[in-house]
Amino acid sequence: METFRAFRIHSQAGGDDARVERITLDDLSDGGVVIRGEYSSINYKDALAGTGEGRILRRYPLVGGVDVAGTVVESDDPRVREGDQVVVNGCGLSETHDGGFAEYVRVPADFVVPLPAGLDTRTAMGLGTAGFTAALAIHRMELNGQHPELGPVAVTGATGGVGSLAIDMLSGLGYSVTAITSKADATDYLQALGASEIMNLKTAELGDRPLEKAVWGGAVDNLGGDVLGWLTRTVRPDGNIASIGLAAGIALNTTVMPFILRGVNLLGINSVTAPRDLRIAVWQRIAAELRPRHLDQVATREVGLDELPAQFPAYIAGTVTGRTIVRLQ
Fold first, then answer.
1. Helices in the chain by DSSP H: which ranges?
2. What residues does each domain of the chain span?
3. Closest-CA residue to 294 (of 107, 122, 167, 118)
4. Helix, strand, or coil here: 26?
5. How far is the C-alpha of 48 from the C-alpha of 46, rounded, in Å?
6. Residue 233 has pLDDT above 80, yes or no
7. DSSP string across 241-254
8. Can you say whether the dihedral through the CA atoms of 124, 6, 48, 98 is positive or negative?
9. Residue 77 pLDDT more than 80?
């Protein structure tokens, strides 16, 4: 195979050096499945890896990109056939294994999920890791007894990729959703996605009692820190909190009282290590019943490989609303 383009991250004195360069399959991590990459997406984690702002990569050099969708061109596994449209997300892409920001991607067959009927590769990456993570959170919450009658679900970090898609998915399932954001100008956007209420985080009174008034039937939290602590104190009995992000901090200041007196459940959501069977089930749920109704409003930008570096600063600064699709060919 001739050379192809990839966004590759190198380690050098003074910091990481990331650039689009031409490589061959021999330069990629081992794997029995070769995918012609069609689309990927940009996530906060990609920005950290691509700028060296976070300790994401475990080895160098490595192709960036935590997800990819495309068409199989080679396979040594009967579960994955040449010509199949597939999606890969998590599984150590852009951490320990070359990732999805490339015209060709090579991975083990266990990484690969068949693209469900009703999704094409561009739509899949409009959802991408953020959409998969939102769907995984909802899936885990519902397996643990979450249902609309428990009460409104709070979604923090509401304008980000996971938050936006979680609002759309939850409202489509019949949940009343309260979007919690510090962006005063985001009301129209969040209401268009299906949020019933908008709460301004900057003016919210979080309180400091071991138990506050029980308000939420459950929550999808992208912030961590004091906000997550507050959610544990305000979720109703038997409600679930899906903990996804740590944008507001890694510390958790709470007590055991919400858990032993209200039966609140704190669920850690890790889309990177989800086993293949679970990834298949979640992508199938996305295609069948969790597909967002307003994805065009969430995934509003499309960029090429050469445009990647210019996108990362806004992700690090937290000023991006929605999703960015990466065109690989």
1. 44-51, 121-143, 161-172, 187-193, 225-234, 257-261, 276-285, 295-298, 308-317
2. 4-115+294-327, 129-268
3. 167
4. helix
5. 5
6. yes
7. EEE---TTBS----
8. positive
9. yes
For residue 321, what are the contacts with CB-CB under 8 A and spacing of at least 6? 159, 160, 164, 183, 186, 189
The CB density around residue 11, as the number of other CB atoms within 10 Å, is 13
Cβ proximity of 118 and 107 under 8 Å: no
Q: Quick check: pTM over 0.85? A: yes
DSSP state of 102: B
CATH architecture observed for domain 129-268: 3-Layer(aba) Sandwich (3.40)
Q: What whole-number distance in Å separates Cα of residue 99 and Cα of residue 63?
A: 5
Whose tokens are 């990732």? That residue is 99
CA dihedral 230, 234, 239, 244 (to 10 degrees): -20
| Token pair for 223 | 């912030």
Q: Which two tokens stand for residue 59?
A: 């080895």
Indicate the SS3 state at residue 258: helix
Cα gap 238→261, rounded to integer Å: 10
Structure tokens at 120: 């094409």
Looking at CATH, the fold of the domain delimited by 4-115+294-327 is given as Quinone Oxidoreductase; Chain A, domain 1 (3.90.180)
Question: Tokens representing 1?
Answer: 């195979």
Residue 191: is its pLDDT beyond 70?
A: yes
Residues 25-58 pLDDT 10s: 999 999 999 999 999 999 999 999 999 887 888 9
What pLDDT is recorded for position 13?
66
User: How far apart (Å, rounded) are the C-alpha atoms in residues 248 and 157?
Assistant: 10
Q: Is the pLDDT of residue 12 over 80?
A: no
Task: Tell whether the model's pLDDT for residue 1 goes beyond 80.
Answer: no
Mean of all residue pLDDT scores within the chain: 94
Q: Is pLDDT of 14 > 80?
A: no
The mean pLDDT value for 234-242 works out to: 98
